[in-house]
Amino acid sequence: MSIAQNLLKIKSTLPSTVTLVAVSKTKPINDLMEAYDAGQRIFGENKIQEMAEKWEAMPKDIEWHMIGHVQTNKVKFMAPFVSLIHGVDSLKLLEEINKQAKKNNRIIDCLLQVYIAEEESKFGLDEEELAEILHFVQTRGKAEQSEANDKNGMNNIRVVGLMGMATFTDNQTQIKKEFTHLKSIFDKLQSLQTENCKLKTVSMGMSGDYQLAIECGSTMVRIGSSIFGGR
Fold first, then answer.
1. Which residues pair with 223 in a beta bridge?
2. Which residues does residue 63 pair with via DSSP β-bridges, in sequence order?
3. What distance in Å separates the CA atoms of residue 202 and residue 214, rounded to the nearest whole number?
4. For residue range 113-140, what is the model confidence (pLDDT) as tens digits?
5. Which end of the chain has fewer CB atoms within 10 angstroms, the N or the C?
6. 40 — alpha (psi -120 to 50), left (phi > 0) or beta?
7. How many angstroms from the chain centroid is the CA of residue 147?
C-alpha cells in the first residue's frame, strides 16, 4: 500500500479523541508530502537539525513535534517553530526551552517524559522528580508578573501532558501495566491546572502497540513504520 493508503487506514481506526503524530524521522520530504497531501498535518522528528531542514522546505501549516531525546544546546535551533516537545526529562531542559521560547516571543508546549519501562536505555522522570518539576513550574508561573519574576519565571512554556515509552518487548501484559501506570499518574495530576500547566495529553503508543495504548487511555500516538514503511 502507498503512504497515503497506510495513513488513511490507520486514521480510520483511531477514536476522535486521539491525535496521530506521523513519525517521519529519516524519511525524505517526498514521503512526508505524500502524507501531507493525504491530510496529515502533525509530524514527529527525533533530530532537531533534520526537523529544522524539513520545516524550512515544507508548508507552514504543519505542526512539528520533537519526539527524540533533546540536548539543551540544540533547543535554540527549534525554538522558532516547534509545536510540541515530547521528551522533557529534566528541569534544566525545561528552563532552557523557556529561555529560548522567550527569545522568540513564543510559548512552547511540552510533555514531561515519565520513566515507565523496565529498560535502562530509556529516559524519563520518576514520580518524585515529576512532582518537583510540576511544583516548580506552577509556583514560577503563578507568581506576580514583576520584572524580577519575569526573568526567573516559567511563562514561556506550557506543560500540557505526559509522555512515556513502554519496554521493548512482546509481553503485552507488561506493556499494558506500564501504559496503565502512566495513565494513573496523569489522572492523579488532573487537579494541577494553572496558566502554564494544563495536563490534557497522554502521549504513549507507537506502531507496534498503539491500539493497546489507546485502550489504556492514550490521547496521542506516535506512528512511523506503519505509515512510511520500515527504516
1. 22
2. 42
3. 10
4. 999 988 766 689 999 999 999 999 988 8
5. C
6. beta
7. 31
Sequence-distant (6+) residues with CB within 8 A of 186 are 161, 162, 199, 202, 217
Helix residue spans in the chain (DSSP H): 3-13, 29-37, 48-57, 75-78, 91-103, 127-142, 147-152, 172-188, 210-215, 225-228
Pairing of strands 157-163, 197-203: parallel
| C-alpha span between 97 and 57 (Å, rounded) | 24
d(Cα 156, Cα 28) in Å, to the nearest integer?
A: 32
- Buried residues in 36-55 as b, exposed as e (16+ CB within 10 A): bebebebbbbbebeebbebb
Indicate if the pLDDT at residue 161 is higher than 90: yes
| Residue length of the chain | 231
Half-sphere exposure of 174 (CA within 13 A, CB side): 11
* C-alpha span between 92 and 182 (Å, rounded): 23
Tens-digit pLDDT profile for residues 78-123: 999 999 999 999 999 999 999 999 999 999 999 999 999 887 666 8
The average pLDDT across 47-56 equals: 98
C-alpha cell at 226: 506503519
